[in-house]
């Protein structure tokens, strides 16, 4: 579980740092020259993960909240794009080579419903009535909701004024090995049909 969370968290940390969202983003988004991986982002998450694991000494309730947050975070991250595609994009979505066909919509609905059910379930305490005390309360909603509320406040106060969306840094995967076409413009010698086909791909006429 820890390894899975570490992989996902490191990927997200690098992506947000690349987009300039974090203090010190230039450092966290740095790609190691030897491994070609964002080592700084990985160590950043490793440090936070080790510190959070120390909560195991605070008792089962504290570390249980951390585990629940990991599950909620994964559910939310995976389901947001599914929900957007299912309920907001509709027929404008361009399918790739692998898709679920006519089953896409009902499976998307089921996935969204499952997440909507599991988030409150993971926030519920395991005890009720007179047995429920502050020491045995499930504090997941507070520990998870606090940072999310902070992120929302930060967005409305500051980030929405300067954040322009993800930065594209994978042009080389879209223009082929020759590197002749950048952002849909011909910057070098391209041969006939090859260059034309690549231009069409960059303009989105091919399903991705």
Provide a brief overview of the structure.
The protein is an all-alpha fold. The chain has helices at 2-18, 25-28, 39-53, 60-89, 104-123, 140-162, 171-174, 192-202; strands at 181-182, 185-186.
Description:
- With 208 residues, the protein is mostly helical.
- It folds into 2 domains: 2-162, no CATH class; 171-202, no CATH class.
- It contains 8 helices and 2 strands, in the order αααααααββα.
- Strands 1-2 form a two-stranded antiparallel ribbon.
- The longest helix is centred in the middle third of the chain and has 30 residues, at 60-89.
- The chain is globular and about 55 Å long.
- The two termini are 31 Å apart.
- 12% of the residues are buried.
- Residues 172-208 have low confidence and may be disordered.
Summarize the SSE layout with pairings.
Blueprint: H1 2-18, H2 25-28, H3 39-53, H4 60-89, H5 104-123, H6 140-162, H7 171-174, E1 181-182, E2 185-186, H8 192-202
Antiparallel strand pairs: 1-2
Helix pairs in contact: 1-3, 4-5, 4-6
- Tell me about the biggest sheet? 2 strands, antiparallel
How many strands? 2
Q: Classify the helix fraction into a percent range.
A: 55-70%
Strand order of the largest sheet: 1-2
Molecular shape? globular
H and E order: HHHHHHHEEH
Mean pLDDT: 77
Number of domains: 2
Q: Span between N and C termini?
A: 31 Å
SS element count, helices: 8
Low-pLDDT segments: 172-208
Cα Rg: 22 Å
**What percent of residues are in strands?**
under 5%
Q: Kindly name the structural category.
A: mainly alpha
């Amino acid at each position: 579980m820890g390894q899975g969370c570490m992989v996902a968290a490191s990927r997200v940390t690098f992506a947000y740092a690349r987009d300039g969202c974090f203090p010190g983003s230039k450092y966290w988004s740095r790609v190691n020259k030897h491994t070609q991986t964002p080592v700084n982002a990985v160590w950043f998450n490793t440090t936070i993960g080790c510190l959070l694991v120390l909560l195991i000494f605070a008792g089962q309730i504290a570390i249980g909240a951390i585990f629940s947050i990991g599950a909620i975070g994964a559910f939310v991250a995976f389901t947001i794009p599914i929900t957007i595609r299912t309920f907001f994009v509709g027929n404008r979505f361009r399918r790739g080579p692998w898709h679920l066909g006519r089953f896409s919509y009902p499976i998307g609905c089921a996935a969204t419903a499952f997440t909507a059910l599991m988030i409150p379930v993971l926030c519920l305490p395991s005890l009720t009535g007179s047995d429920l005390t502050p020491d045995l309360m499930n504090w997941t909603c507070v520990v998870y909701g606090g940072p999310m509320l902070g992120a929302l406040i930060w967005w409305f106060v500051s980030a929405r004024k300067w954040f322009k969306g993800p930065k594209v840094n994978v042009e080389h995967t879209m223009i082929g090995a020759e590197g002749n076409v950048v952002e849909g413009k011909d910057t070098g010698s391209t041969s006939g049909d090859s260059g034309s086909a690549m231009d069409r791909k960059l303009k989105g006429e091919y399903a991705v």
